[in-house]
Design brief:
By secondary structure, this protein is of the alpha/beta class. The protein is built from ten helices and eight strands. 45% of the residues lie in helices and 17% in strands. The protein binds magnesium ion.
Length: 215
Amino acid sequence: MTAFKSVVLDVDSTVSALEGIDWLAERRDATVAATVAALTADAMESRVPLDEVYGRRLRIIRPTRSEIAELGAIYIASALPGVRDAVRSWIAADVRVVLVSGGLRDAILPLAAWLGIVADDVFAVEVEFDDADVASDVRADSPLARRGGKPEVVSSLALARPTLAVGDGATDAELVSVVDRFLAFTGVARRASVVARAAGEVDSFAALTPIVLGL
Ligand SMILES: [Mg+2]
């Protein structure tokens, strides 16, 4: 019997070393990249509500459908060492693994398939494409594009317990109230405020497997 029956994984800077929105912004000129970076910083310093930032960044970057597909391939190329073997071994042991991300679902689906996670277990931000195949805005009903979205989505899944969540960011730390254990992932970025709210920290998928499987 495994130690956890369900695992909730963040994607950006956890499963993959990439921050997808930054990668998309870098495809634009320096002004766009600087504007997006400033917006992110404003949100982190609470000068702008986090809930507004996601849509605003997307409307500034305006990624195309083909750029989002390219991001999907880069997510896989930037996957953390051992993550594929780890996730597949958990699923083989009957652990349900779900991805819960503030990233773009269309870019995360190829990564999920590569990991052996079914599309129904991928929860991320869905976007609207315009006639020119540009992702012009987030879909109005995207809880993961706002604060409090991750706990809301995870609660609604009624995952088999015990549940474990792993992630690097402030929105992941919000999961402490709805899972049995939250671990800060520090293999890409270590945020002291997230570690402080976590039951512990882990910096690799090799270290995570014995925790998940209870070895
Ligand atoms: Mg993250």
